[in-house]
Amino acid sequence: MNDGTPSVPDEAIGGPFVLKPNARSMFQLALGSATTVATMMVLPDAVGIIPVVPDPLTWLMRMIGLWLSGFIQWTISFLALLHFARFVGGGILLTPEGIRIWRFGKEIKWGNIKALTVETQPLFSAAFRLKPVARRLLIFEEKPAAGPAAGFPGQKRLVPHPVPSFQFLPAEFISLFAHLSQASFGFVPHSLDSFVLSPGAEPFLKAASDRARAVRKILSVVIAVGLVMFLGRRASENYFFNSGNSYFRKENYAEAAKLYALATKVDPTFAAGWDLLARAEFRMGDIKNSEQHWHRALQMKPDLIESKLGLSNIYLRRNELDKAERLLNQCALLAPHNSAVYLNQAELYVKLGEKERVHHLLEVVTRESSENAEALARAAKIYLQLKEDELARGLAERALQIDPANASAKIVIQFMRNSH
To answer: How confident is residue 7, by pLDDT bands cut at 50, 70 and 90?
Structure first.
């Protein structure tokens, strides 16, 4: 049987016999498909991270890391899915009466099998690194006609049932083909490259083959076009978004906003793009558009903390304290240890005159974010509002020790010098 000549397995004679997908073959499929899938997954990032990497070597190392991560994740998850399908499907059941392709499928009687054919799949095999080349066994079952022809007595149709070879070892697949041929037609072909059919089945088989060929072509075109569009959209979306991040870090908010807007045009459901577009607009003083775009981000992702915080800043400026408090309470539930949430709540309670709450929140920030220069600088600003200059000075100096270039801390120190 290992020489590639079909022969009937002894175990199947007399039946019943269950042929289960082979674990080694499933592992080979998982590894082969992981190579292709990981490569396709990193293609958008290959373009998208160009604006944020300093040199080609860094780009290459990032790509290798992303590829390995995708490869490992796909291999593990897809292999688990294959084993789950193997358990649920239960394998191919061969009995003296017929064949059942999976556990919950209907049995196909030997007398109803009117044709068998094995197709090679070179493109599929190349794409998923399968060796030897994968094949697909098609079992054509005779059934009563459906559709307009169903009203005519005696009308029949052939329904193909595919069985892919990549589930099994090559010898197992060859033996399966041999057993089906023997049980349905009374002989075993000398090669897998055979077309076995019963007399009179040619017209039905041609119609079924034409339909299957047309469906495969349409499906291939749809998949190819969809894949190109998806990868192209992801690549351009990531490129615009990361380019915007680069300008945002340089405080060029106008250019950043243009690039974030392009990212959201490519993908109108991109919540992070809408959020950072709003943040750039807020930094430029465009309150109307920033409010609108933060709401848009929350439509896409209702639990996006950054957008809720952004809107709370707008409401605090307008003294719409009820709205600000409601949003900040939601943020505190979603992210109970977020220093930005604590600081916005502290600003809220300054406006409400609840000094004890302000002190409690600032103490939490200085304790939990003791290495966060921006959080310490913001806390110093709030202490200035409370006219507690020594606490403000201490936090601003700590912030400058962590980050000597921190602008907020420098503003606090300069303000205190001018006031004295």
So the answer is: low
> Considering only CA atoms, which of 258, 139, 187 is closest in space to residue 6?
187
Higher pLDDT, 31 or 193: 31
The b/e string for 158-171 (b: 16+ C-beta within 10 A; e otherwise) is bebeebebbbbebe
Q: Which CATH superfamily, name and number, covers 235-419?
A: Tetratricopeptide repeat domain (1.25.40.10)
User: What DSSP state is assigned to residue 193?
Assistant: S
Vertex 372: Cα angle to 389 and 259 (nearest 5): 115
What residue type is assigned to position 33 of the chain?
A: S
Q: Measured on CA atoms in the order 363, 369, 375, 380, is the torsion positive or negative?
A: positive
Residue 146: predicted pLDDT: 64
d(CA 118, CA 294): 57
DSSP-derived secondary structure for 233-291? HHHHHHHHHHHHHHHHHTT-HHHHHHHHHHHHHH-TT-HHHHHHHHHHHHHTT-HHHHH
- Neighbour order of strands in the sheet with 108-109: 17-19, 92-94, 98-100, 108-109
105, two tokens: 């499928």
Q: Express as a percent the part of the chain with pLDDT over 90.
A: 52
Per-residue tokens: 52: 């944020």
First to last CA, the chain: 96
Residue 259 to residue 274: CA distance in whole angstroms: 11
> For residues 163, 168, 170 and 172, what is the CA-based torsion angle, rounded to 10 degrees?
-90
Portions of the chain given CATH number 1.25.40.10: 235-419
Peptide bond into 16 cis (omega under 30): yes
Which pLDDT band holds residue 209 (cuts at 50, 70, 90)? Answer: low
pTM beyond 0.70, yes or no: no
Q: Kindly tell me if the per-residue pLDDT of 9 is higher than 60.
A: no
Q: Give the C-alpha separation, 7 to 197, whole Å.
A: 18
Indicate the pLDDT class of residue 53, thresholds 50, 70 and 90: confident
